[in-house]
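Homework help thread (please don't just give me the answer)

Our assignment gives two proteins as sequence + structure token strings and asks us to describe the second one. The first is just a warm-up. Here they are:
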Amino acid sequence: MARPEPPLGSRSLQSPAQIRVHVSQATCLDISSFKEVLREFRKLDDAITMRLNRENAMVRDQERAGHKGSGSVQEQACKNLWDELTANWKQRTRIISYCTQVMDQSKLEKEQAAETEEDAARRRRALDAAAFAHDVMRNQVHNELSVDQIVIRRSLQAFRSRCRSFHPPDNEARKFWDMS
């Protein structure tokens, strides 16, 4: 019996939307881990043209196999990719929002600890240095919201250029369509 092969490519080309990641406070407080998680989720955006091509090929293969969907191959491919993109964008937005909350709470805790510290000036300087380093990380996490908006807009431009007749359904994912 033949082993089933992944459709149209290797596992490395699978959608980041299928990735399940547990993001904890520790992930948010470690900027390298946080950025690695975002990098994984941005792979779909980085390869949007390839994904559109692959989605078209998959829908055509399904039609040849007798599985007829509604609309043209292009419309079906655009709908499938739209669903994938919006699920990915929602998850990424949730992760960034969660991490900004974690960073803001951590900053507040560090400020409170510095206020209650009555030790020597050396201990106070150490706390101030730690607070400054934390502020730098906090700003990086906050900046990811802006970066993500740019990534989404760029992906939307590529998507719209290939899916000119596509109109997203009126649901919460519509807000992404209205961004650009």
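The one we have to describe:
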Amino acid sequence: MPGDKSISHRSIMLGSLAEGVTEVTGFLEGEDSLATLNAFRAMGVEIEGPKAGRVVIHGVGMQGLKQPSAPLDLGNSGTSMRLLSGLMAGQGFDVTLVGDSSLSGRPMQRVTDPLGQMGAQIDTDEGGTAPLSIHGGRQLTGIDYKLPMASAQVKSSVLLAGLYAQGETCTTEPAPTRDHTERMLEGLAMRSAVMARAHVSREAVLYAPAASMCRRISPQQPSSWSGPALPRVQM
């Protein structure tokens, strides 16, 4: 059965930031997931595969990404653009995220607004759409962000920016959303916690991160996000 797209994106992102080798099985070889994979290759990450759903990522560490020589083309992948906005906001170099005509017509303020509150500088096209020009070298500060509507992508973007922020980053959801990012951060030995809230709200708190991720993760993906399998951590 095909792997899960949401986990495939996050496996590439977090495996690239980890130190050491991350092996992913069940990687979904679709255009959106491959857009994320190719973006990290463009930033200097060695990635083997995909071959029959298997990907091997040679992580470069939290500060190891390199400035790409051209804008990162994310095709039609809104997940790639929203999550990468958070990760790229904390890098030391400038980067531009572009997409196809469909992706370029989708407003991105739901992501760029909270990132701006953290200190990120992101220039958008008229109407708040892509391309997104993200200025590097900005000092990010953690925020306590209450999402106006439930969105796993917006939550994840803020938490990923929180990896590079000073202080505590907290997101509060009006309703529970998929928690792949939190679970995978925990698997990578980041200090991440999830707490239930009033049965209809979930709060994900990402504390000031450690200097590096000292564990590797080898996720065996479920066929859908609601499946029973969870990421498996290898020491």
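TA reply:
I won't write it for you, but here's a hint about the kind of observation we're looking for: The radius of gyration is 16 Å.
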